[in-house]
Amino acid sequence: MPAEATAAPLLETRSLTKEFRGFRAVSEVSLRVAEGTIHALVGPNGAGKTTLFNLLTGFLAPSSGQILFGGDDITGKQPEQIAHLGIARSFQITSLFDQMSLVDHLELALASPTGMGYRFWRSNAQLRRFRDRAMELLDEVGLGDRAGQAAGSLAYGQKRALELALALALDPRLLLLDEPTAGMGLEDVDRTIALVKKVAAGRTVVFVDHNMHVVGSLADTVTVLQSGQVLAEGTYEQVRNDERVITAYLGQAGDAHV
Amino acid sequence: MSQQLTQKVDVELPAQSVIPRARPALRWLMLAVGLVVVLALPWFVYPPVAMDIAAWALFAISVDLLLGYTGLLSFGHAAFWGASAYSTGLIAIKLGMPFPVAVVGGAVVAMLLAIPTGYLAVRRTGIYFAMVTLAFAQMLYFLANMWGDVTGGENGLQGIPKAFFGVELVETDAFYFYYAAIPIILIGVFIAWRIVNSPFGRVLVAIRDNPARARALGYDVERYKIMVFVLSAGLAGLAGGVFSISHGFASLQELVWTTSGKVVLVTVLGGIGTLWGGPIGAAVVVLLEDRLASSGFNGIGIITGTIFIVIVLAFRHGIWGTARNGLTSWLNRRRIKTGQRL
Question: Keyword Nucleotide-binding on this protein (chain A) (predicted)?
Fold first, then answer.
């Protein structure tokens, strides 16, 4: 750990700020995410976590500040460009193509870097070359037996798993997961923790979650955000004993996940 | 028993959440029936009207490529239909080209026009996309009106020949012309089918259902939208070219905004997101208009408008969409009842 912390970070933000008509959703956030680590972003609702994700993946342009990925400035790049650079994300609100089958989802994700999507003159049977890998990914997240089903017909926890598989299909260096366990029952939460642990091997993961059990089980480093600013940072143990963090959370009407 | 129960779930869940697709055998049968109808049409319908149906069918398919498969409502598609109608006519008149060459030329002009339009329009979605396309079509309408030396202004472009390598039957008889021109329409439909069933088509559906997700997967949504817009304009151009050759003239009617509205109506009436919807909607609307016009009835718009409202309110998926859903669930029910495997 310490050795990695001194190495150049895979992801770095410098005074990243996003204002919406005078409201600072993200304010002067400077993050350093070391390669190969799992980094959690926590904070009460409205702390700016999802906005930060949208900035990192190009869905929002920052008002000021910089984003560096692997040492390169990626500030202002479009979402599709960032995806090709090796940052994949899942969405907080499950975001799938409801009428498409699971295997079609993954074929589409796997075809993305190849540029095959532009071939309007070829049969979509071409996409079948990705089928084996698509099935592997579905098996990995436990959806192998539902490959032909439409995404819209999946149960909630399964949709989250498909989100994860889609992000993995891009074989990203950095995986951003926005509330991977939101709205899940206990059993699904533990399954997801195990799954994220498994897929995190050899990757860097940044995730947002409200569930402190998830944060505690997964994160190497935890950054606490409040009102768009970094309140505290450290290991889970350090952060949960931090006075300011305790105050912030108690201030949230005893949002007693801890 | 339990096997039948699980089967029922497996069958019915996707039927609700996926656009149901017929099995291959049924699809070939439908295709064969469709081809027979296309080839037999001028025997039963006045040949110029049959040609109108075919041209409007391809026009509607071009709109559906945007509306049904990409989720973009173009309210200015008359621009491409009309631009090609005029260009095709001009090529045929001034250069004396055989009509298939002129039609292809018209389609190319439509595609060239679609590049800047698409580039501007795809930055917007929903009603704003519709408004940008409408504005562009209106601009073209006024240009055609003002540029009377070339377009004939309000009189339209008259005397477009049906030159066809000196085959006199085709050049003079609408019945034979239909058979000479229908391959162009069928090629257009084939191109649309190819696009819809290509990797590109898969990306389009992804963009329609969830553009943000498509971008997060690395797809350049705007570029795909421009591409499909230009391809769609090309198909509308093929259709408009055939239409103007068939009529022997191109008028401002081809560029006016009600033509853009009519093609959306035809598409929605037939059923969006299915290549069969356009032709069925076109057959209904063109035949109806023809019958009403020849009976001397003046309020055609009231009739087609009423039918449109009824169809949209009562059968959300249009004529073909509703028929297909009904057929699919009937077949599934039957199959479950008889215990047959899918």
Answer: yes
ipTM of model? 0.84
Domain boundaries, position B53:
47-263
Asked if B206's CB is within 8 angstroms of A121's CB, the reply is no
User: How many independent structural domains does chain B possess?
Assistant: 1
**Chain B CB contacts of A120 below 8 Å:** 194-195, 198-201, 227-228, 231
Rounded Cα distance, A184 and B127, in Å: 37
A116 lies within 8 A of chain B by CB = yes
Tell me the chain A residues in contact with residue B205 when contact means C-beta distances shorter than 8 Å.
97, 99-100
Are the beta carbons of B195 and A100 separated by less than 8 Å?
no
Structural domain contains residue B173: yes
Under 8 Å between Cβ of B80 and B113: yes
Q: Which two tokens stand for residue A64?
A: 């000021």
- From the list A99, A117, A149, which residue is nearest B209 (CB)? A99
Q: Produce one character per residue of B49-76: b if its CB has 16 or more CB atoms within 10 Å, e if not.
A: bbbbbbbbbbbbbbbbbbbbbbbbbbbb
In this structure, are strands A174-178 and A87-89 parallel, antiparallel, or unpaired?
parallel
Which DSSP category does B252 fall into?
G
- Backbone phi, psi, residue A36, to 5°: 85, 5
Interface contact A149-B220, CB threshold 8 A: no
Partner A, chain B 230-249, Cβ-Cβ below 8 Å = 231
One digit per residue, the tens of pLDDT, for chain B of length 342 reads 333 333 333 333 333 334 455 667 888 888 899 999 999 999 999 999 999 999 999 999 999 999 999 999 999 999 999 999 999 999 999 998 999 999 999 999 999 999 999 999 988 888 899 999 999 999 999 999 998 888 888 888 888 988 888 888 888 899 999 999 999 999 999 999 999 999 999 999 999 999 999 999 999 999 999 999 999 999 999 999 999 999 999 999 999 999 999 999 999 999 998 899 999 999 999 998 888 888 877 777 788 788 888 887 877 788 888 888 888 788 777 766 665 544
B307 falls within a domain: no
**Domains with residue ranges and CATH for chain A:** 1-86+174-188+204-258 (3.40.50.300), 95-171 (no CATH)
- CB contact, 8 Å: B218 with chain A? yes
Q: Is B25 inside a domain boundary? A: no
**Is the CB of B200 less than 8 angstroms away from the CB of A117?**
yes
Q: Do B220 and A83 touch (CB under 8 A)?
A: no
Alpha helices in chain A (DSSP H): 2-6, 49-56, 79-85, 102-111, 131-140, 156-169, 186-200, 212-218, 236-240, 243-251
Q: Name chain A contacts of B212, Cβ cutoff 8 Å.
A: 59, 79, 91, 95
Q: With respect to residue B164, please indicate whether it lies within any of the assigned structural domains.
A: yes
B130: alpha, beta or left? (left if phi > 0; alpha if psi -120 to 50) = alpha
